[in-house]
Structure formats: structure tokens, C-alpha cells
Amino acid sequence: MSDARARRSSGDRLLDILGVFTPGRSALTLTEIAGHTGLPLTTAHRLVATLARWGALERGDDGVYHVGLRLWEVASLAPRGVGLREAAMPFLEDLYEATHENVQLAVRDGMDAVYVERIFGRSAVGVHTRVGARWPLHATGVGLVLLAYGPAELQEAYCARPLERFTRFTVTDPGELRRVLAQVRLENCAVSSRQITEDAVSVAAPVRDTKGAVTAAVSLVVPAAGTDPRRLIAAVRFAGLGIGRALGGDAGGGPDDA
Amino acid sequence: MSDARARRSSGDRLLDILGVFTPGRSALTLTEIAGHTGLPLTTAHRLVATLARWGALERGDDGVYHVGLRLWEVASLAPRGVGLREAAMPFLEDLYEATHENVQLAVRDGMDAVYVERIFGRSAVGVHTRVGARWPLHATGVGLVLLAYGPAELQEAYCARPLERFTRFTVTDPGELRRVLAQVRLENCAVSSRQITEDAVSVAAPVRDTKGAVTAAVSLVVPAAGTDPRRLIAAVRFAGLGIGRALGGDAGGGPDDA
């Protein structure tokens, strides 16, 4: 065990345990938790018991642990998670009802877009996101908006990294990405065509707080074939404006939320 | 400080800090966190720093802490929170689009119903819930369903407690509540009229897992005046069946979720 590991407090190790739960690994036995954290089984046992007693983890009949309802209740207070989606939901519903396409809402965390809400379209293309999922910023509509309006240092750091390719249409050249970001700022929206999958186009617009800072992005994801994505820009921008107004307190979370 | 308090581990105290964040208290200074937990300021400072480093708390420009995005990401793996609502969302949307009334989804935690999803109706009555909120079981439609299909010991314990009154229509007599619960089981749905507010009726139906156990409840909340709530029962039952099927893996989270 390294010195750094040995110095980690009980609180750090408790959070390490929460951190091993991921979308691909959402149900784990005690032995698996110990293995993924590198903790001795007895330590893992004690900390898991602490988490279960509080309600951060729940143990199934099969002895498998998953994330518990109480943690979810506390997490629902995160202003950038459920708080944001509560304010946004009426506008996302309107966008969905107007289009019946995939609707998404995302925030930036470091160099990723994190999806905080998604409404499935019916006839719509496959969308490879889930609530809580992360995607790199350069290839999705919401990501391009969040990157284009992010700090200049972020944009420099982002363009200096290798840009992952998802399809033959993904922009992976830093110079081209800089031009795309300038275009996003010029048009106050992003159109990302076939960059994640070859069958989908996403149209995204910013959500601004009362000071004008971009705090989130909203998008529609539609089939690339037979759609003119530019016809959707006004609706997506409109939704972004409405959500920003709701966050600022000018509009409530809904007509009944007084 | 009591012996019990003194014996609490660093992990327990870390969770105590998360526990002080509530819907009415979602942004707190370090001093407030220390006050609510009863921890010395230096201890609170160290634990809050641990939580902030991991991303469970985020510190605003104003020095105020709120729940962080990373906690929300991990919590989104809770099968009874976001996991359930992901499976349920297409059916809740259909129910909303068919009725434009308030749609709610709840699970039971102890003696409370916890709301995991809600879609606002437009012309609809005020609904005093939010995602993550709790209500006692005896007065709401979802609560009556969750209580009626809960363990017999739960029903006994619940009826032995004082039943809180919210309006003059709230059932507060244990004998009458038992009759109501029997009726819920007979009809496989609950109609709760004017029991929380005098202007609203809720119609709720169970969501069953593959073994037939009731794991959640779905409801519509509509204005009490001029509505025949019984006309909504079939739609709500239908939504409950669909969500149960989706949870069992027979149906996906949506047509695109393959």
C-alpha cells in the first residue's frame, strides 16, 4: 500500500466505495467492492455497512449492493442535476410535444458534457445517452455549445488534446474545431451532423443564467436522412431561452409550481 | 458530546454532513453545516473539504455549499430512483400527452411515499410535490397503493400511528383506512379525493415487478371540480402495467434504447 493510500481518511475511502458504482457496474457484491477499491475485505465490510445503515447503498435479497434511495434523495438537491431539470422540464416537454424527437439537456463538467435529462423520441434515431452519462465536448451538439461558451483556457486545453473520432464525420482537427466553435458563437446554436453516429444530427442551443453565462445546453437529436436540422434551430433556441428564464426565477417550474 | 456521538466514525460524520442538506436547506455555509451536524468547525471543515474534493459537494462563488454533480451522477444509478424513472418515462409521457394532467411516480420508503418523477399538467391543479419529496402514505393515491400492497406488519404499524389530517376529507380513522386499503386491493387502484388539498383528486395504480410484487405506484392528479376521476382509472392502470413490463426487461426504456 502506498503512503498516499495509507494516509487516506475513512471519509475518503467511503467515497471511494461510492465511486466504484458506474453505469456499467451498478450492482456489486462486497468482494467486488473490495476488489475495485483495493480495500481489505474487513475495511470494505465496515464502510459498506456504514453506507447501508445511512441509506447510501441498499442490499438486495441476493446480497448484491446498489445505490440507495436516500443518496438519490439528497442528490436530487444538486442544482446542476435535478434542480436544473425541474426548471427545464416544462420546456423540454413542450419541445418534445412539438417535435416528438429526442430532447436532451446537458451541463459541462471539466471536459465532458453530462446529460441531466433526456426525453426519448418515438420514431427517432437511436441516442446513445442516458441520464448521468458523459460524452466528450467536441462531437455532440450540446458539447459544442458548452465548449464554445466555456472559458478560453478550456477551449485551448481541449483543442490541444487528441480529439476522439466516433465516425468519419467527427471533427478531429483542432483548427477545424476552433472554426466550428466560432460558428457556434456567431449563430448562438450548434448543429452536429453524423459526428457520434452516422444516422443522427443534433441541434443545440445555450441556456444562460441571469448574468448571461451559459450554464447548460438543450438539444434535439433527429435522423440525418430526410431532415433539415436548420428548421429546428428556432425551436431549440426558444427552449433554451425559456429554461434560462425559469432558472432566473422569472418563470416558475410550471404553472402550478407557485 | 455523548459517548455515542464520540464513537461515530469519520465515515458516519461525513454522511451526517450530506444528511443536513434537505429540500428546505439546499445551500449551506460551512458554519451552518457545523451547526446542523453538531460537529466542531475544524472537523466540519476537513470533512466538507473531503466531500468537495470528491465532487459530492460544490462550493459556489459566494462560499455557500450545495450538493455536487458527481453525487448526482452516482445517485442516478439508484435502481429505485433514476433507474426506475428511466424505465417509466415513456409511459409517463404517454399518460401526460393523453391527459395533460399532473403525472406522478412514487416508491415507498418506510412509512412515506417518495416521489421519483413528476410531470406537470398545464391547466391542472396545484400539486405540492417535487422529485425527491416525501408524503405520508395514507392521504395520497400513490401512498394508498404502496400501503395497500405493502407487508401486513407495515399496515398494522401504520394504522396504529396517529394519521395526519391535511383537509377535512383526509381519512384519519384507522378502521376507515383499513377499509380503504381493502378497496384498493379489490379494484387494483386507489382514488384519493381532496385528502391533501381540497381542490385535487388523485388516481393511482400499482407497478409490479416480474414476481408480482408492487415496487412503485403511478398516478394522475386532477381537479376535484368537474372531473370524474373514475374515467382515468383505466389509463393509469395501463401505465402501471407498461412500466412493470419495462422494468422486467420485456420492454426497453423506449423504442430507441436497444
UniProtKB/TrEMBL annotation, chains A, B:
Question: Recorded GO terms, molecular function?
Answer: DNA binding; DNA-binding transcription factor activity
Name the source's superkingdom. Answer: Bacteria
Could you mention a single GO BP entry for this protein? negative regulation of DNA-templated transcription
- Record keywords: DNA-binding, Transcription, Transcription regulation
Q: Known InterPro entries for this protein? A: GAF-like_dom_sf, HTH_MetabolicPath_Reg, Tscrpt_reg_IclR_C, Tscrpt_reg_IclR_N, WH-like_DNA-bd_sf, WH_DNA-bd_sf
**Where does the HTH iclR-type domain lie?**
8-69
Q: Which SMART domains match?
A: HTH_ICLR
Q: Does the keyword Translocase apply?
A: no
**Membrane-spanning segments:** none
Please list the residue ranges annotated as the IclR-ED domain: 70-249
Q: One Pfam family name from the record?
A: HTH_IclR
Q: What is this protein called?
A: IclR family transcriptional regulator
Q: What is the lineage of its organism?
A: Bacteria, Bacillati, Actinomycetota, Actinomycetes, Kitasatosporales
